[in-house]
């Protein structure tokens, strides 16, 4: 593993590392983490990167602005900024690493990944989504699941006006600007309109992000596979379930890469 020098298109330093392929190169994978975490995605992205490296992939992990050791601050995080960050990393990968290029996005990482699909077109080979946030309305603005009801209820939303921010899990601030973006962007529409092959891996007991929305999207979309991690909450809540998600994703990506 080695560090990468990555600066976003608008000048923000992004903490990034490369796991070089340990076998004959078959492609490159960029990993897009969820909100409040960093390029390790709680350790799962490290383990996935090591697995994919063993199978011949170059893997790039990076932290979005305002996360981990990247530049920016949490209150300055926006959907637009994350789109710029991810595109900057993808452009670097396309210039410097072996193709085909795939993206693995976890949770909120699915927002920027999906919204970039119309821009990238067929320059990206495939997209893997873990417990993806596809519907911003039902995840944040009008939440239906326990995590959303706890974090984004009317009392919490009022804090956007009184305090100028809303805290996720009492620690990560969302600004009024980002909150407004939730009503402007449509990652689900962008994902459904794209023809990029995709795999969705989702726990059927997810109390954060809707399993039903993800399953309906996947089963309604062409060239898309869906895998249920039985009994799992958000983020795959045991070592066994994490291993399952990593194995299924790595197998799917390797099969695609060797077919290209």
Question: What descriptive keywords fit this protein?
Answer:
single chain; 260 residues; alpha/beta; 8-stranded mixed sheet; two-stranded antiparallel sheet; 10 helices
Structure description:
The chain has 260 residues and is an alpha/beta fold. Helix content is 41%, strand content 21%. The protein contains ten helices and ten strands. The chain has helices at residues 44-54, 79-96, 109-120, 136-141, 146-151, 154-162, 176-182, 187-193, 211-220, 239-259; strands at residues 2-7, 13-19, 27-32, 57-62, 101-106, 126-130, 166-168, 172-174, 198-203, 224-229. Helix 3 crosses helix 8. The mean pLDDT is 96.
Largest sheet: 8 strands, mixed
Described by the principal axes of the CA atoms, the overall outline is globular
N- to C-terminal separation? Answer: 26 Å
The total beta strand count reads: 10
Low-confidence runs:
none
User: What oligomeric state is this?
Assistant: single chain
Order of helices and strands: EEEHEHEHEHHHEEHHEHEH
- Structural class computed from helices and strand pairing: alpha/beta
Main sheet: strand order: 1-2-4-3-5-6-9-10
Overall pLDDT score: 96
Query: What gyration radius follows from the Cα positions, in whole Å?
Result: 17 Å
Strand content: 15-25%
Question: What's this model, at a glance?
Answer:
With 260 residues, this protein is α/β, with parallel strands linked by helices. It has helices spanning 44-54, 79-96, 109-120, 136-141, 146-151, 154-162, 176-182, 187-193, 211-220, 239-259; strands spanning 2-7, 13-19, 27-32, 57-62, 101-106, 126-130, 166-168, 172-174, 198-203, 224-229.
